[in-house]
Amino acid sequence: MKRVTKSILVAMAITSVMVVFAGCSRKSGTTAGSEKKTLTYSRSQGPYTVLFESGVKPILEAKGYTLKGYDYSDLALADDAVNGGDVDFNVEQHTAYAENYNKGNNGKLVPITPIPTVPASMFSSYYDSADAIKGLNKPKVAVPNDPANTARAYVLLQKIGWITLKDGVNLSTVTSEDIEANPYNIQFTEMKSLNIPQVQDDFDFVVITGSIVYNAGIDASTAIAKETVLPHLVLQVVVREENVDTQWAKDIVNAYHSAEFKKYLESTNYENGLFWIPEDYKFN
């Protein structure tokens, strides 16, 4: 009986030691996580993933990082991946979208740096100037139907003098109900952003968001008008709150603001005005 008891006590002691070491191992893994060299990110078919992979990824790889991209067809799913820890970051959204995601999903996403952004723009298959609207009878204009981009479209049209919005309206939530004056009797059609390039010929003018302009292969230099990119619409690198102060997150920020990245922007084929760079953007 004594021998059995002694054996049990020895086994318990060994188990306790193993638990302690396991706990230490997890703690060490957490520390290593802030200094890790393999990073994962969500990919999409758009200009921001291309910009990252072509201009920023090589800078990070030169610092010893290995980067793995995973494809997501929907930004909400990509955000789920970042929020849930399946990937470390993404580069496909603006501050307003991240904030809306957090509110609706109890999320912990945090933008850590602005990046070059493709503005929403207006195009036409028939006219090369916004002044052409003056000679049209009930011109037809297509705009995106998702809330954030609908607002961008109407704000753009106010910028060029086609409509007037109500005083004091929140520019990030503008709808057709906020139009105070429509002197040219524009007939608006709100539709899915992805479909607008396909039906451009059916309208006098269309407003297309930046990523759709890129994916549709539209020459950005042919835009009749471009939006003034408001602060909440500037694209961002986004990570989980717990990773904001990690070295790898800081290195991503530094890569976007580096002299190497600036040189890349200046030497690539983005001279047609696809990307807008924030006025206060600082290159090191």
- By CATH, the architecture of the largest domain is named 3-Layer(aba) Sandwich
Mean pLDDT: 87
- The N- and C-terminal alpha carbons lie at a distance of 74 Å
State the fourth-level CATH superfamily of the largest domain: Periplasmic binding protein-like II
Unreliable residue stretches: 1-32
Number of helices: 8
Largest sheet: 5 strands, mixed
SSE succession: HEHEHEHEEEHEEEEHEEHH
Stated plainly, the CATH topology of the largest domain is called: D-Maltodextrin-Binding Protein, domain 2
Indicate the CATH class of the largest domain: Alpha Beta
Global Rg = 25 Å
Give the overall shape, derived from the CA principal axes: elongated
**Got a strand count?**
12
Strand order of the largest sheet: 9-6-10-5-11
SSE-based structural type: alpha/beta
Give the domain tally.
Answer: 2
Q: Proportion of β residues?
A: 15-25%
Give the assembly state of these chains.
Answer: single chain
